[in-house]
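[Q] Does anyone have a clean structure-token version of this?
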Amino acid sequence: MEIIKVAFIGILTALLYALLRQIKPEIAPLLIIGGASVILVMLTDSLLGVSSQVDEMMSLAGIEKENVSILMKALGICVVTQFAADICYDNSCSSVAAAVELAGRVGALALAMPMLKTVAQLAIGLINS
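[A] Here you go.
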């Protein structure tokens, strides 16, 4: 039932945006940001549930928490980056959206560097053996 609430808020926000854009175009982007933020806040409970399930699966599989933690943080960076870039695109700021997307890519790469270093060391160790 949560998805029905999310869909309703999304549709309501889009309709209000269309109306407000004609009356007060300078305030309309704030409505989009507010509506999208409400939806993201509504998703936090679901994300916490997913996080606990991932932790449980990691312990069952014997996977290191550090690697999965890096992947979850990278996923978070991707979601936030896409959210921000879409708002920029909606408001005809494609150059800002491109900069946000680039920053997200760099952030995810920087976050993954320790894991990439470990993989490279493992590969070098296998080659030298």
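[Q] Thanks! Anything notable?
[A] Residues 65-129 form one domain.
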